[in-house]
Description:
By secondary structure, the protein is mostly helical. Helices cover 69% and strands 4% of the residues. It is built from 5 helices and 2 strands; from the N terminus they run H-H-H-E-E-H-H. The protein has helices spanning 2-25, 28-42, 49-55, 70-77, 83-92; strands at 60-61, 66-67. The protein is globular.
Amino acid sequence: MFRRAKYMVAAAGVVVAAGTLPILAASPASATQSACTNYVANHGYFAGPKVKAACSHGAIDAGVTKAPNPACIVGLANLDVANSVSVPACKRA
């Protein structure tokens, strides 16, 4: 009886680990980079590899809010993306 309970607990542990592993292993950077890239594209700019590279510089966590990464803003400015678009986009990166 004790042996059976031991196997059930072990099986439950494997199921929980299998369910949480994808959440822990997911890359948050990819989601935020795409949010930045999509924001730029939704404002009429071509969101190619150079925009993706600029958006790869993640926003800076400032506690309550996020600040745009200067490297992201400069990267988008070099592509002639308006400041009114690049700042909100970089906050999403």
